[in-house]
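Page 47, continued from p. 46.
Same chain as before, 213 aa.
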Amino acid sequence: MYKGISILIALVGLSSALAGCVPQERLLRHVAEFRFGPEQATTSTAAAGGAGGDVIYNKTFQLPSSERTLFVTLSSTGDGHGGAALWFSALVNGTVCNPGNEGAGIAPGGWIPLQKHFNTGAGGDGGGGLGDMHDNSIYYTWCCRENVRPGGANTVQIKLASSMAGEFVFVERSHYYIDSVKTELCTMAESIEGEAARMEALKDRLPPGHQDQ
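Result:
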């Protein structure tokens, strides 16, 4: 009898422990699409707030009324020419997912450089002119909360721009994923204790391209 009670107590304890491991959120996938066809290209540059560039993906879908936060993921292959960086932005219903512009990426607010190669001179490795760097992987997820419309139609766009006006950048063989959760996420990460003082002490030693960023 006591052995049976001990086993029962152990099972109850195990069930409680496992219950604590179950995540309270579940990720809902609404879109999983791909584009394997002609390359997509632009020579357009970008402006703050996700303006400029060219749309490389556009999707309107219905979001359940329970969902508050979207995750937009791009998995692709990119090419750069002439030392131009590939800048990307994601928007939900016309509102950029993250308007920040900190760092040395030089991209306007709301844009992020996901690929950049040194201008190697004539030919590169693709034979397409100066600094032609072919077929490099890109994988990035935007966390989007602003202007999300629970229970209604939502339009997601991904845009591509070149960091150098008139210089080609390309993507091809792309996959696109849109997921959601119920909780309102996408908040600023907490500051790291002592980091501001540490970076201030390093400021005069930073390479020129990283100063005053």
